[in-house]
């Protein structure tokens, strides 16, 4: 996966965004969300003020993919800055962003569990079809060892889970990761941490 070059001109950071993302692994593949611009990332989204991160993740997956999920362990935390590859509609340079990303293990729950246990509705590869309910995004199953997501640091972490057999560890007080693998690496309390760095989107 190539790393985009950072724009030479950008506006300074104005706020901190808290993002909750989910690691959903099934049959050696990980579910990724792909934007209309071709960027792929773990599904999830922004945590709203007063909203718990786990609750935000459940809401986002239900709104965007119609999936009911159980949110398990916190597996990965990354604090980073990045610069969008394109500027705003006003023609001004892009604004740099400061994000804290939390990745949780997730597994299907409720009615969504049937998608992962029956062949009807599955693709030729046997993986359940996940259809986007929102314009501008789509969902794909990609090999755990080659997720092709951004940021690059998270891509390396997810890809490394394949070498670990898809096994995951998470921090204390969290749930379990299941579903033919789910993931975390090593770090304080079993959670992987990535430090600050400014990169391209």
Which percent band covers the strand fraction? 25-35%
Structural class of the secondary structure composition?
alpha/beta
* Secondary structure: helix percent: 10-25%
Low-confidence stretches: 170-190
SSE string: EEEEEHEEEHEE
The major beta sheet can be summarized as: 6 strands, mixed
End-to-end Cα distance, whole Å, is 13 Å
What does the radius of gyration come to?
17 Å
Strands, count: 10
Q: What would you call the shape?
A: globular
Helices, by number, come to: 2
Mean pLDDT: 80
Question: Would you kindly provide a brief summary of this structure?
Answer:
This protein has 201 residues and is an alpha/beta fold.
Explain how this protein is built.
By secondary structure, the protein is α/β, with parallel strands linked by helices. It is 12% helix and 31% strand. The protein has two helices and ten strands, in the order βββββαβββαββ. The strands form two sheets. Strands 1, 5, 6, 7, 9 and 10 form a six-stranded mixed β-sheet that branches. A hairpin with a 2-residue loop joins strand 2 and strand 3. The two termini are 13 Å apart. Residues 170-190 have low confidence and may be disordered.
